[in-house]
Amino acid sequence: MKIYFAGSIRGGREDAALYKSIIDYLSQFGEVLTEHVGDASLSAIGDDGPNDRFIYDRDMRWLSECDFVVAEASTPSLGVGYELGQSVAQKKLTLCLYRSGLQWPISAMITGNPALKTAEYSSFDDIIRIVREFMDEIP
Ligand code: 6K6
């Protein structure tokens, strides 16, 4: 299985450690193509990596190759929103996780879209349960 994990980068890196924990958990189900999203050394403003065109082309290729998409969307990110839209357009199985009690609820364009599964969580145990249930639905 190839798994595409989406989490904020330029939207802010406050949840980077959480992304790493989710990626580590997902790794038992297959290859997480976007492991770097959980890399604590990747900052929102770092500019010593590949250029944006390279990142876009590579990430869109990975998205088209993956079996399913998991996003953590508590930190608002244009890139994550774009990836979720692309995922739905490509008819990928898509799970979008977000924390309960966010100051600003996540966009209705995500929670209102019946083509993806959104799930609110309060703890990492919730995330594990939600991911397991999502995996059970994969044919
Ligand atoms: C590194 C440091 C600052 O900006 C970067 C760019 N590097 C990226 N490397 C890999 N994937 C990226 C990068 N920027 C965005 N993405 C993709 O978009 C990831 O798959 C994330 O899920 C998503 C994050 O979007 P933003 O808008 O928060 O950056």
Between the first and last Cα atoms, what is the distance in angstroms?
12 Å
Mean pLDDT, as a whole number? Answer: 96
What spatial form do the alpha-carbon principal axes imply? globular
The overall strand count is 5
Bound molecules: N-(furan-2-ylmethyl)adenosine 5'-(dihydrogen phosphate)
The strand line-up of the biggest sheet is 2-1-3-4-5
In percent, how much strand structure appears in the residues? 15-25%
Tell me the helix content: 25-40%
Largest sheet: 5 strands, parallel
Radius of gyration: 14 Å
Low-confidence stretches: none
Give the structure's gist in a few sentences:
With 139 residues, the chain is α/β, with parallel strands linked by helices. Strand 3, helix 3 and strand 4 form a beta-alpha-beta unit. The model has no long low-confidence stretch (mean pLDDT 96).
Structure description:
The chain is of the alpha/beta class and 139 residues long. The chain contains 5 helices and 5 strands; from the N terminus they run βαβαβαβαβα. The protein has helices spanning 16-26, 52-65, 78-89, 108-111, 124-136; strands at residues 2-6, 31-32, 68-72, 93-99, 117-121. Strands 2-1-3-4-5 form a 5-stranded parallel sheet, with helices on both faces. The protein is globular and about 40 Å long. 28% of the residues are buried. Residues 6-11, 34, 36-37, 42-44, 46, 49, 55, 59, 77-80, 83 line the site of N-(furan-2-ylmethyl)adenosine 5'-(dihydrogen phosphate).
